[in-house]
Amino acid sequence: MKTEERSDSSRPAEEPAAPAGRAGHRPDLVAAGVGALLVAVACGVGWAWQRSNGELQAQWPPLLASWNPHVGPGTPAALTVAAAVVAYGPALADRLPWRRLLLTAWATAMAWIFSLALIEGWYRGIARRLTTKHEYLRVIDRFDDIPAALRGFTDHIVVGPPGNWPAHVAGHPPGATLTFVWLDRIGLGGGAWAGAFCIVLGASGVAAVLIAVRALAGERLARRAAPFLALAPFAVWTGTSADGYFAGVAAWSIALLAVAATRRSLLAACASGLLFGWTCYLSYGLPLIALPLATVLLITRTTRPVLPFLAAALTVPLAFTLTGFAWWEAYPLLVERYYQGAGGVRPYTYWVWGNLAAATLAVGLATAAGLRRTLAATPSAALGALHPRRPAPTAEAALTLLVLAALLALLAADLSGMSKAETERIWQPFYFWLLPATALLPVRGRRGWLGAQAGVALLVNHLVWTGW
Asked: What phi-psi label fits residue 119: left (phi over 0), alpha (psi between -120 and 50 degrees) or beta?
């Protein structure tokens, strides 16, 4: 079948994914080996550190997990999905019509996430996850009067006053909790519906990333990234955590801005802004998504979507503020609550690099190899983008800049000290934008790299109990 051709001349010209100067496999394997070594060192040091004084507050660092080798109902399905994507994913990604590829990638990602979650069984893997003592569903009955709950939200963040919020409710703006309140209001209450909602929305981020990459860097690179996005190792933590839902919303904000910038769509710009505003009220760390959003404008060299984007984005904080919740007042209280709990015990000196080991497991060794190529291409891509008289970035340069923006956002979150541990779950909104770096890998080795990606997820899910 013929694939759809791009006709928008504002998009960068397509190029081969691996320039001749960097096409060798050995440096990629070295990069993957460095990633594996980082994980091994983080495990060894973390295991010894935790057992000496318990400061890391994680049983199996750098992951928040406990050692528990097991199989479950989802094991055959997970193995089947992984084998199918490794065997047929690259060919289908090359041949399917574009819209069908988007739907196939989304459906495959859902199958992958569901099957990994079901390794723990339906109850432990999906229905129970969002109903534990730290989660959002524990406070649904306290939002019978939503305006009143929002007006008093900050009064219950810090531990001490009566009725302080559970950890995840206190640790996020109220948009996260309100999502599950609204699900309950429309008859989709309980952990099973909440879990399925997070999985479906989280998996949709795959389609969003593909749309953005196609708009900014061309269809060829988007197609090459598709199997890796569908088989992402961080799917272990997408099923089911609310962070998967956050990642999906953030991904669609970036994708819609890419569409607005390349197709001059006012509607897409407004929708992108609205989703970005909502993203900032799902997690205090997600204003950092502004970095990839700004990079979209840098790549496309346009400011046309900015005003409608900002106008739509500001409606969300305006609505929350008028209702009684002030983000800027809540955040300092969150910092206080964070240091009242595990955040005040966990040592920065371990987690500032241990987080990166957890991230390596979440994005996989193929992404580590792709990031090597991204960093190698960064100087020329950055100079080209910042030079006002140079033509629009090439396809590879555009992808490099987009991935680099996500990496910088992740590093900023890491250096802040507000993400000590649990980053395999928390940083999912950033991981989505690191995975397209795999499109820069040589075509010939794609199946091997996909197998390595699947292997990481399957080993983690079968060897440890993640708690998410």
From this structure: alpha
Q: Which two tokens stand for residue 261?
A: 């910038």
| Whether the Cβ atoms of residue 422 and residue 195 lie closer than 8 Å to each other | no
Quick one: angle between helices 242-263 and 266-280, nearest 10? 150
Angle of helix 395-415 versus helix 348-363 axis, rounded to 10 = 150
Residues in the chain, overall count: 468
Q: What is the pTM of this model?
A: 0.94
Strands (E), 343-467: 464-465
In 3D, which of 308, 199, 202 has the Cα closest to residue 256? 308
Q: Are 173 and 330 in contact (CB under 8 A)?
A: yes
Reading the block at residue 109, the tokens are 């990602």
Distance CA 458, CA 468 (A): 15
Mean residue pLDDT across the chain? 93
Q: How far apart are CA 114 and CA 459, in angstroms?
A: 16
HSE value, Cβ hemisphere, 13 Å, CA-based, for 89:
31
Q: How far apart are the first and last CA of the chain?
A: 41
Question: Rounded to whole angstroms, how far apart are CA atoms 286 and 426?
Answer: 10
CA distance 429 to 409: 10
Q: What is the pLDDT of residues 99-148, one digit of tens each?
A: 999 999 999 999 999 999 999 999 999 999 999 999 999 999 999 999 99
- Cβ-based burial of 388 (10 A; exposed 0-12, middle 13-18, buried ≥19): exposed
Distances (CA, A) of 168 to 235, 427, 462, 468: 20, 15, 26, 12
CA distance 120 to 128: 11
Instruction: Please name which of 145, 3, 129, 31 lies closest in space to residue 374, comparing C-alpha atoms.
Output: 31
